[in-house]
Design goal:
Elements (H helix, E strand, L loop, with lengths): L10 H14 L4 E9 L10 E8 L4 H18 L7 E6 L2 E7 L5 H20 L6 H15 L2 H13 L3 E3 L3 E4 L6 E4 L19 E5 L4 H14 L4 E4 L3 E4 L2 E5 L5 H8 L6 E5 L2 H6 L7 E6 L15 H8 L6 E10 L3 H6 L6 E6 L5 H8 L4 E5 L2 E5 L4 E6 L12 H16 L4 H9 L13 E5 L2 E6 L4 H11 L7 E5 L7 H11 L6 E5 L12 H12 L7 E4 L2 H9 L7 E5 L4 H10 L1
Parallel strand pairs: 8-12, 8-13, 9-12, 13-14, 14-15, 15-16, 20-24, 21-22, 21-24, 22-23
Antiparallel strand pairs: 1-2, 2-4, 3-4, 5-6, 6-7, 9-10, 10-11, 16-17, 17-18, 19-20
Helix pairs in contact: 1-3, 1-4, 2-3, 3-4, 6-12, 6-13, 14-15, 15-16, 17-18
Length: about 575
């Protein structure tokens, strides 16, 4: 039951209650989400507010026309005459956005919702609330949020060419060893800041559908080998050197701010996942390197991203967060990446498993840096010569060259680290010393020996990642092949089917289907496992060769209990990974 709000309540509560009530009455036009944008994102590079609208039987062009009119009316009424509007259509909906001053991002969401209120009223021919009343409450909220000192600091930081990171609790200027942080309740005036002590550090944003975590960890290992105090954020951790600041999914702006405010950090590698880019935007506009490992079907249908091409647009937001002389490191073997690269404004350093790829050939001819695989060597071309060559067999994560996806990740790491100025020898030593084990790269193609059998544990959960792992293991001899499959519940039936059939490329003699109860995400218990089993049987797997487990750890117990020498096991572990590792090590 919604809270009853009276005239005595604060203006912001009255405003939110009125808008919530109206949105609850609208059936044909559902507000899927409304949120702040703090940095470059799919829709544009401005800070402000975004609303995703699910549309049924409504003309999207008519909707965006109403948006332009009503949102402009709201912006003019509150004095934001220089702020901008935009919209983006997607299958089944529209994204609406307005820009705002950086100290008014909460108010900007309210402004967007007010504008949407009048759009919906016009579209559905329903009664609207009094404009002056809503604007009055909005202005009260704006007055509470306004922070002139913050705006002054932002303007001065821009003049100084140094980054400023803001959130609800803290404001920091510069990065790592060149940073200083203040509470939002105790901000200094610009003249009281010692600007000469503040600066940014070498920083890379790393994204892609698959391989971004491994590439981030590779880069960090190389920088550590170079003797630098290195920070990284991933879907698992925020870490400075060997010091873990926190565990969890920190592939969004929150993890980046935590890391970049640590005064020890000299160089940073930030994993930038799709969710963080779409929800809040990127944390910085001062990266020196942006890496896109690949683009493949994954997480479609969220935040207005319904196609692989739209997913590519979202991922490529990292290239718009570069300093003017920054470098985009891009995968020449990925057709979606190549297509999206046509809109990239920065210099590009291509990498490829094919030395004859058009982008590599062109880069070499024009004297531009690139990296490629040739004659069993990963090679970095610096624009003049093949300045770095490393035998693939000397890079442990490539499994002697069988794990081609990790050759690509190594090439991406070489390009990123050279663009950040890391010496060749450190790159060589870092790659050759980085193991595919739970210490260096937990959850990514980790090999464990058990009772004479070989077990590979991998996070892969979409078809592209699963295919890469299966291809790497295709030539590994085995007496018996066993695979454990699990899938999150927020995948479509088709996505679960595709992931299952791709896992069958492993040619398993036994399949263990594991439930992951903490990833049901709207499905009933055992619904996802039933879909996996049905897909396997429809693909020709004997039902007697399929076992069910209540969790990945329980599935691992089933497998370990029957392992024999020369067996080969692939554990696709999205959840419960630490317990799976513990089980293998205990036994």
């Amino acid at each position: 039951m919604s809270k009853t709000v009276t005239d005595h309540d604060p203006p912001i509560e009255r405003l939110e209650a009125a808008l919530d009530h109206h949105e609850a009455q609208v059936d044909q036009l559902c507000v899927a989400s409304s949120r702040r944008l703090t940095g470059p994102s799919l829709i544009w590079d401005r800070p402000g507010a975004v609303i995703d609208i699910d549309v049924k039987d409504i003309d999207a062009e008519r909707l965006t026309t109403f948006w332009d009119g009503h949102a402009r009316r709201v912006l003019d009424a509150i004095g934001w005459v220089d702020q901008k509007l935009t919209s983006r259509r997607f299958h089944g909906g529209v994204t609406l956005a307005l820009s705002a001053p950086k100290d008014q991002l909460h108010s900007s969401v309210l402004a967007a919702r007010i504008a949407w209120h009048y759009c919906a009223a016009d579209l559905l021919n329903t009664r609207s609330l009094a404009f002056d009343d809503l604007i009055g409450d909005l202005k009260s909220a704006m007055a509470q949020e306004a922070d002139p000192t913050l705006i002054a600091l932002i303007d001065k930081a821009e003049l100084q060419g140094v980054d400023i990171l803001c959130d609800d609790d803290e404001v920091s200027i510069g990065h790592g060893i060149g940073s200083q942080t203040w509470s939002v309740d105790d901000l200094p005036s610009p003249q009281d800041v010692t600007w000469s002590h503040l600066h940014d550090i070498p920083l890379a944003l790393i994204t892609g559908t698959n391989g971004k975590t491994t590439t981030t960890r590779l880069c960090a290992a190389i920088a550590l080998t170079a003797g630098m105090v290195t920070g990284l954020t991933t879907t698992d951790v925020v870490q400075v050197g060997d010091d873990i600041l926190d565990r969890g999914d920190y592939s969004g702006p929150g993890g980046a701010r935590m890391l970049l405010r640590d005064p020890r950090v000299q160089i940073a590698f930030l994993e930038a996942a799709r969710g963080g880019i779409l929800r809040r935007g990127l944390p910085t506009r001062r990266a020196r390197v942006a890496v896109v490992t690949n683009i493949a079907r994954d997480h479609l249908g969220e935040y207005g991203v319904t196609t692989v091409a739209e997913l590519a647009d979202a991922k490529f937001a990292v290239t718009r967060a570069l300093v003017p002389d920054g470098v985009s490191v891009l995968n020449a073997d990925d057709a979606c990446v190549v297509h999206a690269a046509s809109d990239v404004a920065s210099a590009i350093c291509w990498f490829s498993l094919d030395p004859a790829a058009p982008q590599i050939t062109q880069a070499r001819a024009s004297g531009q840096a690139c990296a490629y695989l040739e004659r069993g060597m990963v090679i970095f071309f610096d624009g003049n010569t093949e300045a770095l060559s490393i035998p693939v067999k000397d890079i442990p994560i490539t499994l002697g060259g069988a794990a081609r996806h990790n050759i690509g990740n190594a090439l991406a790491a070489i390009c990123a680290c050279r663009a950040l100025g890391i010496p060749h020898e450190a790159i060589r030593d870092g790659l050759c010393g980085f193991a595919s084990d739970p210490m260096d790269n937990p959850g990514r193609f980790n090999e464990v020996c058990y009772n004479g059998a070989r077990l590979f544990i991998d996070y892969a959960h979409n078809p592209a990642a699963i295919a890469a792992v299966c291809n790497a293991l295709a030539q590994v001899p085995a007496q018996k092949r066993i695979v454990m499959i699990s899938q999150p519940g927020d995948r479509s039936d088709q996505d679960i089917h595709d992931a299952t059939t791709t896992a069958l490329q492993f040619q398993p003699d036994l399949i263990v289907v594991a439930e992951i109860a903490d990833y049901l995400r709207g499905r009933k218990l055992n619904e996802t496992t039933q879909l996996i089993e049905t897909s396997a049987i429809s693909s020709g797997i004997n039902p007697d060769s399929i076992l069910r487990a209540s969790s990945p750890s329980e599935g691992t117990k089933l497998i370990l209990a029957q392992l024999q020498p020369r067996d080969l096991v692939l554990l696709l572990v999205l959840s419960d990974r630490e317990r799976v590792f513990d089980l293998v090590q205990e036994r």
